[in-house]
Amino acid sequence: MKLYYHPASTTCRPIMLLAAAEKLDIDYHVIDLFAGENYQPAFTAINPNQAVPFLEDGDFHLAESSTILKYLADRQRSPAYPSDLRERARVNERMDWFNTGLYRDLGYGFVYPQVIESYRYLNDEVQSATLANARENVKKWLMILDEHLIGPKNAYVCGARLTIADFLGACMITLGEVIRLDYSAYPNTMRWLANMKAIPYWDDINDAFYTYFVAPYDAAPFERL
After folding, report:
1. What pLDDT score was predicted for residue 218?
2. Are the CB atoms for 218 and 16 separated by under 8 Å?
3. Which of 13, 80, 119, 143 might form a disulfide with 112, Cβ 3.0–4.6 angstroms?
4. Taking residues 115-144, what's their average pLDDT?
């Protein structure tokens, strides 16, 4: 199997976590997002979406982080993607929740417009209004995550067991570390993140994220929650 990816990518890191957990034999092929390689003709011919991750498993090709996670977990019969109908539905629900709600506002509405030039609005009023709207939405999503999805008893987002929903969600939440978001108002979320960061392979998988995406902005001023 070949995975086109970037090691600092929010959507690639979940797949790398699963691959580490399951010891998958994957040929990793870096697409340099920071240099715009994903927009070049060579990669566009591979994935017209011009995005990573993109998986090739023989003659079967697959895009979208959440879908690749499910495919690989199923392929390995991973306990991180339970076969029980209701347990699996819960994992799918949490993954959709992260993807369509929290990540939309945290990533594309709040973090990326502050650090990635192509997402920044040229009009200052539009930029300010976008960040203000996203800020309120992110607070809402974080409250739901903290009080309802994790709550005071769950170790992970689907209950007591680690699932691929945790891989996806933790990488999206840690995106906030690029602009040094303070999650201390959300103690259950902080506890869950501590559980995720205690996974033996977490540091190795996330090293590039902290090196290439967090560290360069260490002294930059950002709007916060």
Report:
1. 92
2. no
3. 119
4. 97
What value does the mean pLDDT take over residues 119-133?
A: 97
CA 194 to chain centre: 16
Where on the phi/psi map is residue 132: left (φ > 0), alpha (ψ -120 to 50), or beta? alpha
CA distance 15 to 72: 8
- Phi, psi of 177, deg, nearest 5: -70, -20
Residues of the chain above pLDDT 70, percent: 100
Other CB atoms within a 10 A radius of the CB of residue 45 amount to: 8
pLDDT mean over 42-70? 98
What is the CATH T-level fold of the domain 2-76, as seen in this structure? Glutaredoxin (3.40.30)
As a whole number, mean pLDDT of residues 97-125 equals 97
Domains in the chain: boundaries: 2-76, 85-217
Give the fold, CATH level 3, of 85-217.
Answer: Glutathione S-transferase Yfyf (Class Pi); Chain A, domain 2 (1.20.1050)
